[in-house]
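Weekly modeling sync, notes
Attendees: AB, CL, MP (scribe)

Item 1: holo prediction request
CL wants a bound-state model with zinc ion before deciding which constructs to order. AB pointed out that an apo prediction alone won't tell us much about the pocket. Agreed to run with the ligand included and paste results into these notes for async review.

Input as submitted:
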Amino acid sequence: MMPQIVQGLSAAAVLEVWEQGANRHPLDQALLLLRYACPEEPFEAMCEWSIGQRDAHLLALRRQTIGDRIEAYAECPACRNGLEFELSCSALLASAPTSESTWTTVQQGSRIWEVRRPTSRDLVEAISAADPAQARRTLLSRCVRGASGDVEAVAWTEANEAGLAARLGELDPLAEVLLDLRCEQCGEQWQAVFDIVTFFWNELQARSRRLLQEVDLLARTYGWTEREILRLGEQRRGLYVEMALS
Ligand SMILES: [Zn+2]
């Protein structure tokens, strides 16, 4: 499902989101951002979006707020050489799932199963589990069931757990974006996960700090209020900052 039209965050909204979401779990930060991205959408419904759907909306919000191009950085696991690379929100959005989250039939081992994409609500349940193995089982128990008419209780084994967890990943390619990276220095090749929630949140944190510095400077120079300064467009505010500094 491609996200509906998403409005970018205004300067004032960036500060509001950052203030409300600081020190919260990334799952909460993501839902908070969705509230701003889709103010018309009921909150309960957004909690039931698959993680891929959630991330598609966050990519659209990031594109509207900061721009399409993502400049990312990774460190080579072998030689620690830094690697800079570019991604694009639009290119990532192209792999968003095209349908709503519903049950799909898959074969795993000798059985037929019905699986659906995990949602924010499923992940909230999973992260409260005692350990990663328990978390995975919690997730599977919510998102996997025996095929209709199959009354036999689900017998979890190491093999079908791992297999079904992988099937969940295939259903929702945007839920875990894996990047194939290669170090120019030593030739090492590895896969890194790109997590839009953490990445975008860090950007918003940096932007908030910058905005507050600008408010501080312009308020002291011109006597304007925070609200007046945040209402200025990006370009005008930037020019006033330049003049205040010269
Ligand atoms: Zn290397």
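Recorded for review: The chain has eleven helices and seven strands.
Action items: CL to compare against the apo run; MP to circulate these notes.
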